[in-house]
Design goal:
Blueprint (H helix, E strand, L loop, with lengths): L12 E9 L3 H10 L3 E7 L5 E8 L3 E8 L6 H9 L2 E9 L2 H10 L5 E5 L3 E6 L9 E6 L21
Parallel strand pairs: 1-4, 5-8
Antiparallel strand pairs: 1-5, 2-3, 3-4, 6-7, 7-8
C-alpha cells in the first residue's frame, strides 16, 4: 500500500452501517430491540440467497442483520460455517464510487466485486487488508429510496451523499 499523494483525493464518505451475519434475523433482532433500535426495513436480496434487515439507533447509527435464506448455500452460509455469527462488514457510503475505486487502486489497495445495480453500486475491499475487516463501498443512485418501504430512512440523516 502506498502513501497518499497530492492529487489523489478520496470523495466524501461516511459509515453507512455495520453488517452482522446471523443465523436468524428474528432471533438476533430481539437484542437490538432491547438496545433501543427500531427496525425500518427487511427484504430478500435481489442477487443472493439471503435476507437483510435495517435497524436505526438514534439519528444516524444503523445496523444491518443478514441471514441466509433456508436451504441456501452462499458466501453467507460459508461465512457462518467458518466464523459463526458476528461482524460481517462495514459499509462506507461514498459520493462517487468510481473515483473511490480509482484512488484505492492508485494506492495499491485491492478492490473486488465491483457491481452496478439498478439503484446503487458497490465494491469491496477484502478483509485481507490491514484492518482485517471487509469494507463495502456503496454509492446510492437516484431512485434507491423510492423502491424500498423505509424510503429516505435508509439514508444516514435522510439524505444520500
Amino acid at each position: 500500500m502506498t502513501e497518499p499523494s497530492a492529487g489523489s483525493e478520496m470523495p466524501r464518505m461516511r459509515i453507512d452501517h455495520v453488517g452482522i451475519a446471523v443465523e436468524s434475523i428474528e432471533d438476533a433482532e430481539a437484542l437490538l430491540f432491547v438496545l433501543g433500535c427500531e427496525k425500518i426495513h427487511e427484504e430478500s436480496s435481489e442477487y443472493g440467497e439471503f435476507t437483510w434487515a435495517t435497524y436505526v439507533l438514534g439519528d444516524a447509527s444503523r445496523i444491518e442483520l443478514i441471514a441466509p435464506d433456508d436451504g441456501s448455500e452462499s458466501f453467507l452460509t460459508a461465512f457462518l460455517d467458518r466464523n459463526g455469527p458476528g461482524l460481517h462488514h462495514v459499509t462506507l457510503e461514498v459520493a462517487d464510487l468510481a473515483t473511490a475505486i480509482d484512488v484505492l487502486d492508485a494506492h495499491e489497495v485491492r478492490v473486488v466485486d465491483h457491481a452496478e445495480f439498478d439503484h446503487w453500486g458497490e465494491a469491496f475491499v477484502p478483509p485481507s487488508n490491514p484492518t482485517g475487516a471487509l469494507l463495502q463501498l456503496m454509492e446510492y443512485d437516484e431512485g434507491y429510496a423510492a423502491h424500498r418501504v423505509a424510503g429516505e430512512r435508509l439514508f444516514v440523516d435522510g439524505d444520500p451523499l
